[in-house]
Amino acid sequence: MNKRYLILLLAIALCTVQAAAQNLKYVFLFIGDGMGMAQVDGTEMFLAEKEGIIGTHSLCFTQFPVATMVTTHSATNSVTDSAAGGTALACGTKTANHLIGMAADTTTVLTSIAERAKRSGCRVGIVTSVSIDHATPAAFYAHQPDRNMYYEIGCQLPASGFDFFAGAGFLDPYGKDAKEAGKPVFDLLGEHGYTLCLGLDEYADAGNDGGKIVLLSKDPQSKALVTAIDRRPGDLTLRQMTEAAVSTLARGDGKGFFLMVEGGKIDWSCHSNDAGAVFREVEDFDSAVQVAYDFYLQHPDETAIVVTADHETGGLALGDGLYVLGLKAYASQRLSVEELSARLTDLRNNSATTPEWETVRRFLTTNLGFWDTVALTADEEKALREEYHELFVARHDNEEETHYATNARFAAMAIRILDSKAHVSWASTEHSAGYVPLFAIGRGTEAFSPKMDNTQIAPTLARLAGYAE
C-alpha cells in the first residue's frame, strides 16, 4: 500500500475517533410536567382532527429519531410527586416524595446535572412556566427536605451561581411562611450579581454583557404564566423565555451550556381534568422545544435535546368505552376551566340584575361551542340550567377544588360535558404511575434507546457532555 495513502487513512481514522470522543457542548433537557403518553398522543390527534384528519399531526419533538418510555416511581411509592420525580431527573437518584435535591434519608445532599455542568465551566439556565421555586425547577439548584419550603428554596437560587433563570415568580420571597426568614430573595439576587427583569422589555434593556439574569413575569410573585388557551397579546410565554435563555447562555466563553425547560402548566391543566387546555399546553411546550431544535440545526454535532416528563397526571384516557373519539370538540374551547369559572363568577357579581339564562347560554356558545359546533342533549342542557340557577339565581358558591385551583361547579360541569362529547375520560385529579415518553436528538442520544428509569437520564447526559462529578 502506498505510504502516503496509508498516512491519509490513519489521519482520517484519528479524526473520526477524536470526533466520536468529543463531548457535547450544548445540552437541552425539556420536562413536560404531568405529560404522559396520552397527553402527547392526544395532542397530536387533536391537531389532526382540527384539520379533518383521522390520525396524528406530529409535534416537533415526536419526530426526533430516538423514542422510548420511562419509569417514574419514587423511592417510597409507585406514584411519584414532582419533587421526587424532579430530583430523579436532576440528580439521577431516587428519593422520597416531597424531597428536593436530597436522598430519601433526608440528610444526604445530592448533586444535580445542572450543578455538575456549572462545575465543569458551562453556563447553566433553568426555565419554567410556573414559579421558579416550584418542585421541578428547584430540584436542579436547591436542597430541601420539603418542597413547600419556598422561601428556603428561593434563597438557594442566587447561591447556585447559575447564569439564567426564568419563571412566573417566587411564591414566598419574603419568608412569610418560613420558620426563620432573613433577607428577601430579591435582595439576595442583587447581592449575588443577578439582574432581575420583570418582563421581556426589562430583559431587552438589561444589555448583552453576559451577566446573570432572572427573568420573571411583571408580577414577581405570580404562581404561573397565563395558561396557553387563555393567553392574550403581551403575556409572557414559555417559548419567549426559552429564546431569552438561549440568547443569554450562548454569550458565554465557548464552553457551552446546559438548559432545563419545564412545561409546568401541562400538569396544572391535568390536575383540573381540562383536556382542551392540556392539549394547548403540550402544543405550547412543543413551541419551546422548537427553539432548541432550531439551535440544534445550527450546531448538530455539538448539541443534544432530550424531552421527557416527571410523571403522568390525571390518568388521561383517550376513550370512554365506545369505539369513537371526537377530539375536534375541543377546537371550540376558548377558555380554561379556571378562566371559565372566573368569568362566570364575574358575570354574576358585576351584573346589576341577575343575568338571564339566554345570556349565560350565549357565553357558553362563544367559549365552548355549545349548541353551535358542539350539540347538547336535553339532559345536558337541563344539568347546566340547574347549575345556572345555583350560581346566578340562588347565588350559591358551589365549588370544586383541585390541586391548583378552586372552580365554580358550573364551570367544572361544562368541561365534563365537553369531555363526554370528545369521549375523553380521567381516572383522577392527581398523579398516576404510568410510563412517560422520552424523545431525543443529537450525537450520542442513541444511548437513550432502551426503556429507561428516570434516574438514568441525568447520568447519561452528564457522561455525553463530560461534566465533572
Q: Give the averaged pLDDT, no decimals.
A: 94
CATH topology of the largest domain: Alkaline Phosphatase, subunit A
Summarize the amount of helix as a percent range: 25-40%
* Global Rg: 24 Å
Helix count?
Answer: 16
- How would you spell out the order of helices and strands? HEHEHHEHHEHEHEHEHHEEHHHEEHEEEH
Just give the CATH class of the largest domain.
Alpha Beta
Proportion of strand residues? 5-15%
Overall shape: it is globular
Q: Per CATH, which architecture of the largest domain?
A: 3-Layer(aba) Sandwich
Structural description of this entry:
This protein has 469 residues and is α/β, with parallel strands linked by helices. It contains 16 helices and 14 strands. It has two domains: 26-317 and 436-465, Alkaline Phosphatase, subunit A (3-Layer(aba) Sandwich); 327-422, no CATH class. The strands form three sheets. A ten-stranded mixed β-sheet has the order 5-6-4-3-7-1-8-13-2-14, sandwiched between helices. It has a two-stranded antiparallel ribbon with strand order 9-12. A two-stranded antiparallel ribbon has the order 10-11. Helix 2 (37-50) crosses helix 11 (275-298) and helix 10 packs antiparallel against helix 11. The longest helix is centred in the middle third of the chain and has 24 residues, at 275-298. The radius of gyration is 24 Å and the shape is globular. The chain starts with a helix and ends with a helix. The model is unreliable at 4-20 (pLDDT under 50).
